[in-house]
Amino acid sequence: MDAGVEVIDLHAYIAKIDHEFKTQRYDDINAPLLYIRILIGEATCNDLTDCGATRNYMSQNFMVHIGLGPRVRRKSKPTQVTLYDGHTHKSNDRCIDAIPVYFAPHVSEAVSFDILDTKFDMSLGMSWLRSEDHPVNFYRRTVHVRDRNGVLVPCTVPPPHPSIICHVVSAANIRASIIRDDIEEMRVCFLHTLPPQDIPSTDALPDPRITELLDAYDDVCETPHGVVPDRPIRHEIILEDGAVPPHRCIYRMSKEELSVLRAQLDDLLEKGWIRPNSSPYGAPVLFVQNKNKELRLCIDYSKLNAQTVKNADPLPRIDDLLGRLGGAKFFSKLDLKSGYHQLEIRQQDRYKTAFKTRYGHFEWLVMPFGLTNAPATFQTAMTTEFRHMLDRFVLIYLDDILVYSRSLDEHVEHLRTVLERLRQAKYKANLDKCEFARQELEYLGHYVTPQGIRSLADKIEAIRVWPEPTNTTDVRSFMGLAGYYQRFITGCSRIVAPMTRLQSPKVPFVFDDDAHRSFQALKTVMLMALVLSIYDPTLPTRVTTNDSSCGIGAVLEQHDGDD
Question: Is the overall model pTM greater than 0.70, yes or no?
Answer without folding.
Answer: no
